[in-house]
Design a protein that fits this description.
Length: 131
């Protein structure tokens, strides 16, 4: 006779121990998996926060430089000149509306021609209809 046939209680005890060991092993795997997932999520969140911190540092640098220019008064003065048309005493403002070619500059140098006499409505209609 085999050992199991003589002692059926030992076989049952071994099955219980095996089941208990499998349950403990399953719980351990489940716990490790949960921690691994949590660790991955935390790493992603840390990376996102690091990117945001880097962007905020860049924005802070831009704002600091802008604040320095404002403190120096250059920006405030130039903004007042552009937006409010302000000027210093003795200053003259020159407005350039576009670039002229040399031919355009020569044409502007000539005195303008005398304006033509206004046309009658009949002449305007004749040109409109037949030209």
């Amino acid at each position: 006779m085999s050992v199991t046939a003589r002692h059926p209680g030992r076989l049952l005890a071994r099955k219980r121990v095996l089941a208990l060991n499998l349950a403990i092993f399953g719980l351990a795997i489940w716990g490790f998996t949960g921690e691994a997932i949590r660790n991955r999520d935390l790493r992603r969140e840390i990376a996102d926060l690091q990117e945001r911190a880097d962007q905020l540092a860049k924005d802070n640098l831009v704002l600091t430089r802008h604040g320095e220019r404002i403190a120096e008064g250059q920006t405030m003065e130039s903004e007042a000149r552009l937006k409010l048309n302000m000027m210093k005493p003795g200053e003259q403002v020159v407005v350039i509306r576009g670039e002229l070619s040399h031919a355009g500059a020569q044409e502007d140098a000539k005195p303008p021609a005398a304006p033509a006499a206004p046309e009658s409505n009949a002449v305007k209609w004749w040109r409109y209809l037949f030209h």
